[in-house]
Design a protein that fits this description.
Elements lengths: L7 E7 L6 H13 L4 E6 L14 H12 L5 E3 L2 H5 L5 H11 L4 E7 H4 L8 H7 L1 E5 L11 H4 L3 H9 L1 E2 L8 H9 L10 H9 L5
Parallel strand pairs: 1-2, 1-4, 2-3, 4-5, 5-6
Helix pairs in contact: 2-10, 4-6
Length: 207
């Protein structure tokens, strides 16, 4: 176990519509690169910046996350955004997690494509002060084109976020492609854990 006095906890939020191997590999990479004790998977209730037309019900997305991480003690599903009702804002979640884990170092895990959207996030500067953002490179996203101005945040924060970029494994799997494949009757084997594939079939999701 870790020798640090403070537990180091990763936060991986998203629609998880559905959760797939890319999410799990990202969580494992974050665990190793940031020396985390565990990663919390937080499915959102209603995402503030995404189209919700093809969004499976919160209980289904949470159940798929639970199925995907069951048996891995390093990963923990968290239902606080599903329970909260209304639009899910990261600031509310992190503030709540600060109360649950007052002594922890919280690491908010994002893809580099999210960095240019952070200026739109609710109370972003408060959020940045409550946790440490770690951005992982994503397939098809050129981080070399990113500079402080592109983030549209105070320069000191923008530079700090760019220094937080970590090379991620280039796993080109997306939830939207998985939903498309299901709708077209194509296989999603190896793209999602077997338990998630079975859950989707059982509940006839995305058809």
């Amino acid at each position: 176990m870790h020798s640090q006095s403070k537990p180091r906890i990763g936060i991986l939020g998203g629609t998880f519509n559905p959760i797939h191997i890319g999410h799990l590999i990202l969580a494992q990479t974050a665990l190793e690169k940031c020396d985390l004790n565990k990663v919390l998977f937080v499915p959102c209730g209603i995402p503030p910046h995404k189209d919700t037309s093809g969004l499976a019900a919160g209980e289904h997305r949470l159940a798929m996350v639970q199925a995907a991480v069951e048996g891995d003690l390093r990963f923990e599903p968290l239902d606080i955004e599903i329970r909260r009702r209304g639009v899910s804002y990261a600031i509310d979640t992190v503030a709540e997690l600060r109360k649950i884990y007052p002594d922890a170092e919280l690491h908010f895990i994002v893809g580099t494509d999210t960095l240019t959207e952070l200026h739109q996030w609710k109370d972003i500067y408060t959020l940045l002060s409550l946790c440490r953002f770690v951005a992982f490179t994503r397939p098809g996203h050129d981080v070399n084109s990113l500079d402080a101005a592109a983030l549209r945040l105070d320069r000191s924060w923008a530079e700090r976020l760019l220094r937080s970029v970590v090379p991620g494994r280039q796993i080109d799997v997306s939830s939207s492609d998985i939903r498309y494949r299901i709708a077209e009757g194509m296989s999603i084997r190896y793209l999602v854990p077997r338990e998630v594939e079975m859950y989707i079939a059982e509940h006839r999701l995305y058809v």
